[in-house]
Design a protein that fits this description.
Domain YopA central: 108-242
Strand content: 25-35%
Number of strands: 18
Structural class: alpha+beta
Shape: globular
Organism: Romboutsia faecis
Mean pLDDT: 94
Low-confidence stretches: none
Protein name: YopA central domain-containing protein
Helix content: 25-40%
């Protein structure tokens, strides 16, 4: 197998699981009722909720000629190499001060760069091309395109079974991958829209992993000089394995194509917030404490996908017709258009009695959800065991996964969560089957 270029390295690979990352160490200023000159550290807290924090000793203070009109929840931090940022002060006395930034990022001014490197927290081990790191050979690179840009993502060289298991045991967080963005024609570009690209990549990776995966920092370079810096308040789920549509995919070309398609779809001003909401509900359906909450999240996602496909994508129904239809009718229309199979065959997971009472998985999803949302003293159609409820959620979640993959135009392989499967066992999406 061909070996591509050496792996991209990040100096932040040296930090351990859940270890705070030092962003800056030295002198900086804080503006409150006066100007406070400080000496301390600014650091990235790696335990969720992640944030940029500071701790410092106060060297001296000086009055300003103008009225700052600031308070503890709205002070200003000024540090070399970054734009001033609003902060909240937790504690302050004659000698010490600490707190955190209020904005969702801390960054330098926009400028022209040749490439931007970025660090990803808690991404799964993905299949990929062979790469080298200090004479170590490992499969860990994926590459894809977003319009005029090319993106490379490399797994960290030591992301092996041991680190994966430690992350799961600790439910921890660590930088697992590093990426690079550059123009396909190798020209320089301005960093204005880098945050949007990073956000779309993060959303794409989160849907792959069934939990929140995010990018915490980015550095832009011109020549060998670091001319752009960005720290983002990432939203990350503590590491754990979640079964998803991608968990047994071995052919990395599927992953590359999927990310490219999802990032492209997220550029649309309608689809971006809509898809993000669907992915939020999808992740909630995988991570809620109770099965009851999971099924509610599944149905909300399915109803949204139905509206997207039937009303917005194909204009088959207007808004009033959609609202007048039953939820089950809209979901069946969605699945029919997407060529996602449903029916008695998918009820093999249940006993004969349940199979005799319900037509398909949609029936079961709607019944389970209504049983929770509309509790009644009257007898129910069926008594569901914990296993039954779990299987209903798996059926509904598969509908969500496939319908969203259809919306973005994906035609590759996926992992069928309704079947026992091992790594490499996949199916072609149903709308691309002969």
């Amino acid at each position: 197998m061909k070996v591509v270029k050496d792996a991209i390295y990040s100096k932040y690979f040296n930090y351990d699981i859940d270890e705070d990352i030092i962003i800056y160490e030295g002198r900086f200023c804080i503006y409150l009722d006066k100007k406070y000159k400080c000496n301390g550290i600014i650091y990235y807290k790696m335990i969720p909720p992640m944030s940029v924090n500071f701790e410092a000793s106060i060297i001296n203070t000086q009055d300003e000629d103008f009225d700052l009109a600031l308070d503890y929840d709205n002070a200003i931090l000024e540090v070399y190499g970054y734009k001033p940022v609003y902060i909240t002060i937790n504690t302050i006395n004659d000698s010490n001060i600490d707190g955190y930034i209020n904005d969702n990022n801390m960054k330098s001014k926009n400028t022209y760069v040749e490439y931007v490197d970025f660090d990803i927290i808690n991404l799964n081990q993905l299949p990929g091309k062979l790469i080298n790191y200090e004479n170590k050979l490992f499969a860990g690179r994926i590459e894809f395109e977003i319009n005029d840009y090319k993106v490379v993502i490399d797994k960290r060289y030591d992301y092996r079974k041991e680190l994966n298991e430690e992350l799961k045991i600790k439910s921890g967080s660590i930088i697992t991958h590093v990426g690079r963005i550059f123009k396909k024609d190798n020209t320089t570009f301005k960093t204005n829209n880098v945050e949007d690209i990073l956000d779309r990549i993060s959303t794409s990776l989160s849907f792959m992993c069934g939990r929140y995966v995010d990018i915490c920092l980015a550095n832009g370079y011109h020549g060998e000089k670091n001319v752009y810096r960005l720290w983002r308040e990432a939203i990350v789920t503590p590491f754990k394995f979640v079964p998803t549509w991608s968990d047994t995919i071995a052919n990395y070309h599927n992953i590359e194509k999927y990310i490219s398609l999802m990032c492209k779809k997220l550029e649309d001003s309608y689809y971006e917030p809509t898809i993000k909401h669907i992915i939020d509900w999808y992740i909630e359906s995988q991570n809620n404490i109770t099965l009851e909450n999971n099924i509610i999240s599944v149905q909300i996602a399915l109803e949204t996908l139905s509206y997207v496909v039937l009303v917005e994508l194909y204009d088959l129904l207007d808004e009033q017709e959609f609202d007048e239809n039953s939820t089950s009718k809209n979901i069946r229309m969605l699945l029919d258009i997407c060529k996602i199979p449903y029916g008695q065959k998918e009820l093999y997971l249940f006993d004969d009695w349940i199979r005799s009472k319900f037509d398909d998985g949609i029936d079961l999803v709607i019944y389970f959800r209504n049983k929770i949302v509309h509790p009644s003293r009257k007898g129910h159609k069926a008594n569901l065991s914990v296993d039954d409820m779990w299987n209903i959620i798996q059926i509904g979640t598969r509908y969500v996964e496939l319908a969203l993959l259809y919306v973005i135009g994906y035609k590759g392989e996926y992992s069928n969560r309704l079947k026992y499967r091992s790594y490499g066992e996949v199916e072609l999406v149903p709308w691309n089957q002969v």
